[in-house]
Every structure is written in structure tokens, then in C-alpha cells.
Amino acid sequence: MKLGFGLYRHQLNQDSYRFARQCGATHLVVHLVDYTNACRPREEGPREANQQPVGRQDGWGRAGDPNDPCWSVEWLEGLKADVEAEGLSIWAIENLDPSMWHDVLLDGPRKDEQMARLAQVVRNVGRAGIPVLGYNFSIAGVCGRDEKPLARGGAMTVVMDGADQTPLPGGMVWNMRCDAAATEGHVGPISHDELWRRLEWFLTRLVPVAEDSGVRLAAHPDDPPTPTLRGTPRLVYQPRMYQRLLDLVPSRANALEYCLGTLSEMSEDDIYEMTDHYSKHGHIAYVHFRNVRGKAPHYHEVFVDEGDIDMPRILGILKKNGFDGVLVPDHTPLMTCDAPWHAGMAYAMGYMRALLSMIG
Ligand SMILES: [Mn+2]
Questions:
Q1: What is the distance in A from the centroid of ligand 1 to the CA of 333?
Q2: How far is the CA of 221 from the centre of ligand 1 (A)?
Q3: Which residues lie at CB < 5 A from ion ligand 1?
Q4: What is the pLDDT at residue 49?
């Protein structure tokens, strides 16, 4: 098992690589989507002060440019070289910008064109030698949460208190604002089966490309995991529902971005049995190693060592099954100091590193 660290788009710089290395990471999971528009010029809008994208009703920020050069082989190779110069490797890219695939999610008129673009992106990721591409097949995305000082010692953290069912405004997809014209009239109520058909359409086309490219597509479960959110259906809102996704297109390239926090928020199934099942069969590409208290739609995120999940037990299961992928903290409560996000992350990394050394 490898210890990794996740970095957002605006953190892709030498200082962050050194911070990750100093925390004991050997690998990075990088986000190329600029969720809160922190990389845009200031005049284009306010930046979120902290590094915790929560997902209130107005969403995170504007979606990016579908042709952003960051998805080119040259850009990815440059990123890889910068990261490797600091003694780290890139394990995964996490998430696709909704501007690249909103009509795949919405079954809109540009879905074929967008699928061609996704296939090119997967080939580029493979050519750059990056083994995993994480995605989250969701219309509403990560939304309907708030922030409250509910983690240990009054640390600010992400909270869900009831499922927000206010309809998505036109043009909002995956909790970001896309070109309204491109999506007008498409964010309507649909059935769960319809969304599963859209996922099947996506996987049957992209998994073979991923296989040929040496890339594993890794699915994040629905966060937060409720049957519907903002009037749209969700796919993987109980741990066993991951199996349906895997069975659509059985392949090593059809894998899981296994988010322990989200899975623990789910109301059914035993997280230890499920972790044993998915890791035994080699389905897990990487793990979001975070902890929570409560079940959706009423839960809050907590420090890695104070939640409902017995984290040492999870690591024991992963070790028993020979899991050889990466663990990353995902997110943590913010600590009261001058660097709330960094302190929270460093705390989680120290805990994870200690657990990994204890289990050998
Ligand atoms: Mn996660």
C-alpha cells in the first residue's frame, strides 16, 4: 500500500509537492478541475478563502474550458516531470470538468462529440504514464452540504442535515455552472434506470479506450449518498450498488475510487464486508481514507481517528487482500491555526503513516 496526497488545481506547485513529500507521501492524486475558480483572475469572481469545496445551493464555481490544455499529453508530461523532480509519482487524476461531458451526463445533443473528447483525454492520460483517472458520474454532483464547527475541538467541517431537493438551475451540472445554452431544458427529472443507461453508454465506450491506454477508470460513489439529490437520481448510494457499476463492463479498467467516508455515510451494508469484497477482487484503484459520524442525510465529516469507521480494521482488510494501490486523506476538518487545511491534512497523513508502519 502506498501513501498518497491529493492536490487541487491551484495547489499544483513546488511548495505543495514538497508539503506532500514532507507528510510522507510517495504519490499524488491531482485535480485538474478548478472547482472554486481559484486559478482564475480575481476580477472574474471571489475565491473561496479555505480549500474545502462544500457545495451549497449556488454550486462551486464556473466550469472550465473543455479544451483546457491541461488535458494534453505535453501538459501532463510537464506536470509529471515537475512532480517527479520532487520525489513523487502521480497515481491518479481525479475528476472531469463538467464542461467536457455535461451532455454525456444529461444525454444531450453533444454527447458523441464529448465522448470523442473523453476518449482523447484517456489516451493522453495513458501516454503520459498516469495509471488512473477518477470520475464521478453524477448530475447534481457533490452538493447539499454546509460547514459547521462539529469536529473535535470545534473544528469546522462538512455537514449534511437533510437532502436538498430544490431543483438544479438550468446550466448547473455536477455542482458547477456550465454554458446555460448547452444544457437548457436538459436538467429535468429522470428515473434511476435512465441514469444507469447513461452510465452504461459511457462505460461501454470509454472502458475499451482505457484498456488500450493502460488507464483504470475509477468511480467515486455518490457523495452525499442519498437516492436523489436536488431532484436528480443518484447511482451508487449503497455500498453494494458499486457491484452493478462493475458488472456493466467487467474489466480491470473499470475500477473504483473507493471513498470510505462516503461509503460509511450510506445507510445499508457492512463497510468491512464490502471493503473485503471489493479489495479481494482487485476492484479498488485508490482509497479516500476519511472518516465520518452519522448516516446520510444526517452526518458530518470528522478527523480520521474519531469517526464511525474503525480505520485500523479497514487497513487490516486491505492488507490481507493484497491491496497495492494508494490511500489519500480526501478531506479533513479544518484546524484552528494560520493554515487550517494544511494542518488538518498533515494530521491525517501522520495518522495514516503510523497505521501503515504498524501493519508493516
Ligand atoms: Mn471521496
A1: 14
A2: 8
A3: 259, 288, 330
A4: 46
Instruction: State residue 71's pLDDT score.
Output: 98
**Number of structural domains found in the chain:** 1
Ligand 1 centroid from CA 188, angstroms? 26
Cell numbers that stand for 227 in this block: 437516492
User: Residue 78 belongs to what domain range?
Assistant: 2-359
- Mean pLDDT, range 164-176, rounded to an integer: 89
> Strand 172-173 relative to strand 228-229: parallel, antiparallel, unpaired?
unpaired
- CA 222 / ligand 1 centre spacing (Å): 9
- Alpha-carbon distance of 219 to 269, in angstroms, equals 19
CB atoms within 10 A of CB 320: 12
> How much is the average pLDDT of 52-66?
82
Continuous H helices in the chain: 14-22, 73-85, 98-106, 111-127, 180-183, 192-213, 241-248, 260-265, 271-280, 311-320, 340-359
42 class by beta-carbon count within 10 Å (0-12 exposed, 13-18 middle, 19+ buried): exposed
Instruction: Output the domain CATH number for residue 145.
Output: 3.20.20.150
CA of 94 to the centre of ligand 1 (A): 10
Tell me the per-residue pLDDT of 248-287, one tens digit each, with 9 for 90 and over.
999 999 999 999 999 999 999 999 999 999 999 999 999 9
